[in-house]
Model the fold of this input.
Amino acid sequence: MRSRPIGFLLATLAGAVLALGGTSAASASPPTAPAATASEDVGTADACYTWGGTLREGSSGEAVRQLQIRVAGYPGAGNQIAIDGAFGPATRAAVTRFQSAYGLAADGIAGPATFNKIYQLQDNDCTPVNFTYAELNRCNSDWSGGKVSAATARANALVTMWKLQAMRHALGDRPITVNGGFRSVSCNSAVGGAANSRHMYGHAADLGAGSQGFCGLAQAARNHGFTEILGPGYPGHNDHTHVAGGSGRFWSAPSCGI
Done:
């Protein structure tokens, strides 16, 4: 049997007291239950972000932008979605792929089930549960000194992590080793990075072989929003797989058939 709401029990108690000619604190000042909010409809969120209602094609605003970050790893082969707060066909397709990947009803509409799954996948700092800001920045502690502002570099790294989370899930939820990410201009110079390296924008990550192997990672990255993939067979990349977002597309891992 379902338990009665606390307000019902208090009201019943108050009525009984009044019937006996007495008074009670409950009758003098009955508690008021907080009104239900849209966020309560989608379960208990963490300290990062809480969605307040259903999002679908045509929706816009910050809630959509936050959703786009989380589904950035599901754009379809060779694509990436814009993190622009506009819920268009590409976002709907990404949401559908995310839903399908986790066994949800794949209708492209982000509602309670979709948000609850995201809450399970993210930590309180908005990073996905299997990746951290520390992994994506072994250069300095404040994300400064790159080709963009520190805030932008950190935001780009967050999108990169969600892409990696999608890739990790597609590869059987086996751990992915991140050896480096953001670099300031000085850090990039110190390791001999390219003058236009996407590491300096926060878009990039260098991956260790792990159980998937360099080629397995490079091949999977094609489906998860990475516009730059460099791996075995490309000069200087036989000992890691490099993935990055950003404009344009450049894939080269000849030893892996890419």
In short: The chain has eight helices and five strands. The radius of gyration is 24 Å.
